[in-house]
Amino acid sequence: MKVYAFMADGLEEVECLTVVDLLRRAGIETVLTSISGKEVITGAHGIKITSDVLMEEISETEEDVLFLPGGMPGTKNLAACKTLTDKLIAHNAKGGRIAAICAAPTVFGELGFLKGKKAVCYPGMEDGLIGATVLTDKVVTDGNITTSRALGTAMELGLELVRILAGADASDSLRSGIVAD
Predict the structure, then answer these.
(1) Domains along the chain?
(2) According to the model, what pLDDT value does residue 181 have?
(3) What CA–CA distance (Å, rounded) separates 131 from 47?
(4) Which of 51, 96, 175, 181 has the fewest Cβ atoms nearer than 10 Å?
(5) Are 45 and 78 in contact (CB under 8 A)?
(6) 73 upstream amide cis, omega within 30 of 0
(7) How many of the other CB atoms lie within 10 Å of CB of 124?
(8) Shortest CA distance to 117 belongs to which of 99, 101, 103, 129?
């Protein structure tokens, strides 16, 4: 099992790297994956992040997690990438786990994944959560979909994914070790 963090130019750097850092600290293989065909992604705040792989090089399985960090125009770039949206559609159809933060849950809404689900996103973008019951929690997991609100909730998203993938003890231990209590 791997977590693929899909990166597009204009992503919110801290949302991506906080989640990736926590997953890796928990021993969960996490792969920075560029959707742009180039190795280096430039975030919304000018921070350059080197990917581990290009999206074309991966072969995800049903056990893997597909994670979308938010940010603008990163989220729009994710939504516009047909190769990525095709992967998301196929993965979700098999019940594969997907996660998104900030503006990125709107990609799931636009693809019809949130009908009848509870979800959260960045305040003011709720119209993009098409069909969802919109909440204001920091993180919401409903079935195979986990969503989170914004940069300020990235740590909680990372800890929730650790809980789901490695268990509550691993998440609690990590929370204590990073003094996130």
Answers:
(1) 3-174 (3.40.50.880)
(2) 78
(3) 34
(4) 181
(5) no
(6) yes
(7) 8
(8) 129
Other beta carbons less than 10 A from residue 146's beta carbon: 23
* pLDDT tens digits along 64-83: 999 999 999 999 999 999 99
* Burial per residue of 73-82, b for 16 or more beta-carbon CB atoms within 10 angstroms, e otherwise: ebbebbbebe
Q: Residue 67 — φ and ψ, nearest 5°?
A: -115, 130
| 40-42/145-148 β-pairing | unpaired
Q: Are 17 and 50 in contact (CB under 8 A)?
A: no
- Supply 3's token pair: 């977590």
Task: Give the residue ranges of the chain where pLDDT is below 50.
Answer: none
| Cα–Cα distance measured from residue 3 to residue 107, given in angstroms and rounded to the nearest whole number | 18
pTM of the model as a whole:
0.97
C-alpha 74/C-alpha 4 separation (Å) is 16
